[in-house]
Amino acid sequence: MQIRPIIGMEIHVQLATRTKMFCGCAVRQDAPPNSSVCEVCLGQPGSLPVINRQAFRLAMLTGLALNCRIASHTKWDRKSYYYPDLPKNYQISQYDLPLAAGGLFEIDTPQGARSLRIRRAHLEEDAGKNFHDVGDCTLVDLNRAGTPLLEIVTEPDLSSAEEAYIFCTELQRLVVHLGVSEANMQKGQMRFEPNVNVAIEADGQEYRTPIAEVKNLNSFRSVRQAIEYEVARQTAAWQEDHDYQIGKRPNENRGWDAERGVSDFQRGKEAAHDYRYFPDPDLVPVDVTEAMLAEARASLPELPVARRRRFVTEYGLSIKDAETIVDHRATAELFERVVAAGAPVEVAGKQFVNAWLKLANDRACAVTDLGVSETGLAELAKLVAEGTVSRTAATTLAEAMLSRPDPPRRIAEELGLLQVRDTDATARWVEEAFAANDKAVRDALANPKKMQAATGFLRGQVMKISGGKADPSLVGRLIEERLSALRG
Q: N or C: which end of the chain has fewer CB within 10 A?
């Protein structure tokens, strides 16, 4: 028996607009319940929706980034269903004429690059939010009702939970890079719904299990775990009953219980006819002009996958370092300006990853918000490359630069961080490290399994004793000379 997972994704992205999709109510996460609402988003009789131009522009920009065809003519449809958080009893969405369709999105996997087909990306409005954890009742907050959503639907091209995980992280990076969404999953600004079934080859035939759509996942970890669980659950269900097949059993909507690590049946999965789509009579269709497309194309930045690959090939960064720097668009752009200012690429890359990004994370901000100029960043990298300041001392110096406008060299002089190439002083630091770490010395002399680690530990101790001022290459040479002397 051979098992092949078949996975497609539906992703809801909350667009970064100030107001809702079809009315002027503010999009606010912090508003008191049911306060950021009006006649339109509450579905009051006689109220008329008006399209949010900025939401349409952001959706078009995303469609272009996903290599989709942008429709020259698109319209709005009513998707009829009733939930307590949908006061109109229908959602304004797009059905047969979506804004964007037929796209391709590239991701990098451990097995190589993959192109995933994007079926469509269409605009719609969000529903409100139900709260089930207050006593024995359900509370409804309609502040979110009417918030602009972009729904992105892939073809079932994903073949594993890990691949789906990579796709979701890359898509989040894309929409943040474009500035179309903050994509904060804890705030519900990006939600994933994998559609999962399994192709099973046995006895010379292929069987396919019913499709399960796992609803409203708000973390990458949940996406991976839910898909892994569904593949195992559906395979076991088929093994128990070979009639558990698509066409013989209904497709399902399921909810994910992260604490229990299982999915639970919610209801049968709806088909398009269940929603009774029809054109919204209150909204005019939109004709997308060449001028609108040209403006959107002109505002497209270099996309994260392309920029990450270029950082690897052009700058020689490791894939991991390139991914870390590219994760934030402004940081990536700052890095390029620092390199253009003369910073050695390898040193600047390591400083961004190991020093500047850590300092930014500790302060819950971006590197661009630390207040250090690109000139200062470039000069610090140059000081390390030329051996004036050690990599260890550079970390201390970077933190000092946050509160001082002086050039890095002057700060290093005042703090005594300039690298010492004095052989006699360095030899004394080596002797002090050897005297204080007898076990590491013995391991470096006589334990083949620990020799390299022990030598590295001693080197670190010398740098610590010197306050980061010792020249690492001189330290390494003197440590080897001292060990050789002890070996006799």
A: C
464-479: burial string, b at 16+ Cβ within 10 Å, e else:
ebbbbbbbbebbeebb
Taking phi first (over 0 means left), then psi (-120 to 50 degrees means alpha), and beta for anything else, what does residue 252 get? Answer: beta
Say how far apart CA 191 and CA 1 lie, in whole Å: 34
Q: Count of CB atoms within 10 A of residue 235's CB? A: 17
CA distances to 216, 453, 478 from 8, in Å: 14, 46, 59
Which two tokens mark 447? 């334990």
- pLDDT of 253-312, one tens digit each? 999 999 999 999 998 887 778 889 999 999 999 999 999 999 999 999 999 999 999 999
- Strand-pair partners of 256: 263
Give the type of residue at 464.
K
Architecture of domain 423-487: Orthogonal Bundle (1.10)
* Sign, CA torsion 394/382/334/174: negative
Which residues belong to CATH 1.10.10.410 in the chain? 423-487
Retrieve residue 376's tokens. 């200062």
List of residues 6+ apart from 10 with CB closer than 8 A: 151, 152, 153, 154, 192, 193, 194, 195, 213
